[in-house]
């Protein structure tokens, strides 16, 4: 990441996060143009180079298997990323296992292990809504560019073959913040590890009840729970209250609540005297790229 920051020393921290989310894993960063916006660089160096770049994402000579791999990766790029969420009528569990193996070997995907504790008492409850529930790991793309390709490029192969970019650019504009938010979550976990020493466990957390962007533990047992917002408005107290409710629902004994924001925080939060609240805005993320 240090090398990435050096390559784009002319960018603001916000822009650096955006470029990292899209172009991490892109083969030739030096061709990106300083005087053009992120969207202009996407059009020039991804959309217009589609015919060359698509060769990077050929994983099998078997055309049917290649099609299944592409569908598989597209579902992961837009979905919950849970292991079983990609299986549909057209991709069997057995087929999926074959695809996973190929993508792990080619370093396209890596596994994000569930940290949920298997509580056998849960299965004795009467509510049918949770019957058949399984603890699931998640998959994540090893590079941001790989996910960008299968979220924004793969669905528009026909338009790209015809050099018709308008619909693709509009889709990117509408969904770019959603796309970046997952990488912002990753960077937030990294920032907390740099800010707080002796963190031995971090990452997101999900179980049958809730999902948390950040759950980190220090060597002495100090527990951090966090929420990350890549939004164009400030985080207010409602977000903190929701985070506290989610933590209580799972039963975590939280020492610090941590909020990470692209656009800053409300006066209510900035003036808070809560010693157990940590706030990190976009300027703090400079450290992550140093």
Radius of gyration: 21 Å
Which oligomeric state applies? single chain
Mean pLDDT: 92
Number of helical stretches of at least 4 residues: 11
β-strand percent reads: 5-15%
Order of helices and strands: HHHHHHEEHHHEEEEEHEHE
Q: Spatial order of the strands in the main sheet?
A: 3-6-7-8-9
Main β sheet profile: 5 strands, mixed
> Which consecutive residue ranges, at least 5 long each, have pLDDT under 50?
none
What number of structural domains do the residues give?
Answer: 2
Distance between the termini: 8 Å
| SSE class | alpha/beta
Q: Give the beta-strand count.
A: 9
- As a percent range, the share of helical residues equals 40-55%
Specify the overall morphology: globular
Quick structural summary:
The chain has helices at 2-7, 13-23, 38-47, 50-53, 63-78, 93-105, 144-153, 157-161, 166-195, 237-250, 267-270; strands spanning 109-112, 138-141, 199-201, 205-206, 211-212, 214-218, 223-229, 256-261, 277-281. The protein has 290 residues and is α/β, with parallel strands linked by helices.
